[in-house]
Amino acid sequence: MKFTLDWLKEHLETTATPEEIGKALTMIGLEVEGIESQGKALEKFVVAHVVEAKPHPNSDHLNICKVDAGTGELIDVVCGAPNCRTGLKSVFAAPGTYIPGKDFELKGGVVIRGAPSNGMLCSAAELELSNDHDGIIELPEDAPIGAKYVDYAGINGVVFDISITPNRGDATGVYGVARDLAAFGLGTLKKTDFSPIPSKGPSPIPPVPHQFADGAPKAIRKFAARYIKGVKNGPSPEWLQQRLKAVGLRPINTIVDITNLVSLGWGRPLHAYDADKVEGQMVLRNARGEEFDALDNKVYTLDETMTVIADDKGPLCLGGIMGGIRSGVTEETTNVLMESASWDPDL
Q1: Is residue 204 part of a domain?
Q2: Which of 37, 57, 255, 309 has minimal CB crowding within 10 Å?
Q3: What's the burial of 257, exposed, middle or buried (CB within 10 Å: 0-12/13-18/19+)?
Q4: Which pLDDT does position 157 carry in this prediction?
């Protein structure tokens, strides 16, 4: 399990160094597999100033730029971003820099349609900071030329990677780790408001009945859900995307990213259904040999030992494992059924 130092400190008041926290984690039975810098892959990228941007004579979309990256001389760069312009502050990669979003190392001495290009002005997608690849990063006018971008943008946190044994379900969320470290004496656990939020009206999706035959395996322990209407889905906020990326998860959309945030933050897995895609009555039952189109884009044949959440058309979710494409949320989703369930790990 991975988490950042900043995330841990949202729950733990501590002055301990990353090294001290690492030792304490191992002492309380959460073995540390690694401690690394969040911005290590981006250390070579710097803040740069586009001193001049002129149209490329042999292209209808490229610009030939003179770029000041703090080296003492202007650098020739050919850039195709639509927002590239004279006076812009952006992020620059010199030859020899690995571009994580493109998975290649930038080469020097490149000639593009007859014009030399000795570096690259970068988009957020190329730095794997977001999915935005429509233009290069735009920085404020006062961004310091030549400064490391990770220092300027604050992408220089610490990421812990710990090993969790099967008996430590309490430590599958950052809050649980913080609580354990506080009990160890490494700091003080911050108060979190867990007050319930009452429903504002009846759910159009009725309670989900259990339909299990006598003696049949029943993996479900407790099933709860909340209907949430009128949501606006789309890309999640930048802070949430960065938090997930720091621990190796790919941001998908606001609703899905929230489920991952809660799962990692509090050790409480959630699953979101597009409520408008549910057909008829939702039920909990064992599978009947159906084929199931899962969110990993694979088709599985389910047997009677597997618990599913189903509607009149068939399985919507393989309980405790994975949701299905048919009820998956998209950017068009406006009404959500958010599931929180407890499953028997032996079934």
Answers
A1: no
A2: 57
A3: buried
A4: 86
> Residue 196 domain-assigned?
no
Buried b (16+ CB within 10 A) or exposed e, 297-309: eeebebeeebbbb
Residue 162, token pair as written in the block:
């710990």
CATH code of residue 262: 3.50.40.10
Examine the pLDDT at 68 and tell me if it is beyond 80. yes
The tally of domains found in the chain comes to 3
The residue type of 307 is T
So what's the pLDDT on residue 73? 96
Do 149 and 45 touch, CB atoms closer than 8 A? yes
pLDDT tens by residue, 166-223: 899 999 999 999 999 999 999 999 999 989 999 988 899 999 999 999 989 999 999 9
Half-sphere exposure of 212 (CA within 13 A, CB side): 18
Parent domain of 132:
46-148
> DSSP string covering 106-154, please?
PPSSEEETTEEE-SEE--TTTTTS-S--SS---B-TTPPTT-BHHHHHT
| Residue 194: inside a domain | no
Whether residues 333 and 233 fall in one domain: yes
Model-level pTM? 0.77
